[in-house]
Amino acid sequence: MSDPIRRLSEELARDPSSLVFLQLGEALRRSGQLDLAYKVAVRGLERHAHNADAHDLLARIYVDRDELQSAFDEWDMVLRLAPAHVGARKGMGYILFKQGKLGAAEEQLSTAASQDNGDPSITTALRMVRRLLRYAPNRDNGATALGPAELAAAQLRVEEEARLLFADILRDGEHTAMLLNTDGMVTAGVYLTSDGRDVAQEVGAQLSGVRDEAARVVRHLDLGAWKAIVYETDVATVALGPALDDSLVLVAAARSIPLGFVRRVLERCVQRATAWLGEVG
Amino acid sequence: MTSPFEELLASLIRHRGVLGCMVVGESDGIIVDANVQVGIQANLVAALAAALYRKARLSSEAAGLTSVNFLQLEAERGQICAAGRDGLVIVTVAEPRAQIGLIRGAMLQSVEALA
Fold first, then answer.
1. pLDDT bucket at B1, cuts 50 / 70 / 90
2. Which of A9, A77, A108, A281 has the fewest CB atoms lying closer than 10 Å?
3. Helix A20-30, helix A34-47: angle, nearest 10
4. Tens digit of pLDDT for each residue in A192-222?
């Protein structure tokens, strides 16, 4: 048993009516001890039946146990107790998405986004659902649940759209571009090596840290918003530019390509990315 | 005592729009020598620019793109350029109107002197 879990357990043993069960249940859930987490949450709910966070905890444990309908019911209870609970809306949106009920998922995520527009994970999920809706059958209202095959087909089309986002700007040149979200995950574009492998996720994860460092520099030196970071290595020129919602466009080109051309490509890719993100924003 | 980088920095500061330039330790961000206009917070610029350059170099190497020769950060109210070699980085702070092409050329030439 880890130290924080032991400490929380002892605290709960000393005062069984304490709300510390919320922290203990969450710590157990995060450490993968789902049965124990479940017991703690259920016992806590026996004493605090009207605590929205306790129902939220139980819902998250259900999700980890892959009991999606039970999780949905718990979050439904959360919303009865606390109608503005963003986590419950987000969770219900996730479950509805997994069930192929895209219209309902969009509704929940849209409400969550309006209640907390600073959470990038909600915005990303909402954009994904809205894109899926464009490719889904019955897309007029999204009321009908999609079957697994239909959902998978829609997901494939969205992935293809994202992968080819910059294709017409780049054409067949010796350069590549991708769009990274605030966590450094690739949301569009590809990064192909000379032997044709797509290493976008690996490269994106490594290079997105440069953005955070640049943000620190401009903040401390009062330089205003940063517009571009360009750096040259022995083999490539890399250009980074900010897009909508803390997203980042990365263009990498062979050293043989003039720097000015790389900057032009970056500008066009940033415009494209901003428009793409905004169209379902 | 005369710094071995005095001449290098004097030639960089002469470029139009350059507000300051310095040679900085990459790992600690401490100034080795500097030539800056009044009002530039040299120590702060040195520490931040060295950290940015270091981050870019490490990220670039991890991504398989080899080490960084030259870096430019362009912001609304100014630009930071950095070029490094053997644990030292030449850092230049410039106004938005500065001719980065010329500054870049001069910095890449100067970086040889860091060896």
1. low
2. A281
3. 160
4. 776 777 788 888 777 777 888 888 889 888 8
In a domain, A53, yes or no: yes
What are the tokens at B39?
Answer: 């009002």
Count the neighbouring beta carbons within 10 Å of the beta carbon of residue B15: 18
Point out the least confidently predicted range of A54-68, A70-84, A163-177, B15-29: A163-177
State yes or no: pLDDT of A142 exceeds 60.
no
Residue in A with minimal Cα distance to B78: A223
Concatenating the DSSP letter of every residue in A81-127 gives H-TT-HHHHHHHHHHHHHTT-HHHHHHHHHHHHHH-TT-HHHHHHHH
What CATH number did the domain enclosing A191 receive?
Answer: 3.30.450.30
Question: For testing the chain B interface, which of A221, A237, A263 should be mutated: the one with the most B CBs within 10 Å?
Answer: A221
Residue with tokens 């780049």: A170
- Assess whether A66 and A29 both reside in one domain: yes
Which residues on B lie below 8 Å from A227 (Cβ)? 74-76
What CA–CA distance (Å, rounded) separates A180 from A166? 13
The CATH classification of domain B6-114, taken from the options 3.30.450.30, 3.30.70.2470, 3.40.50.720, 3.30.470.10: 3.30.450.30
CA distance B77 to chain A (A): 5
Give the span between the Cα atoms of A164 and A52, in whole angstroms: 43
For the complex shown, is ipTM > 0.95? no
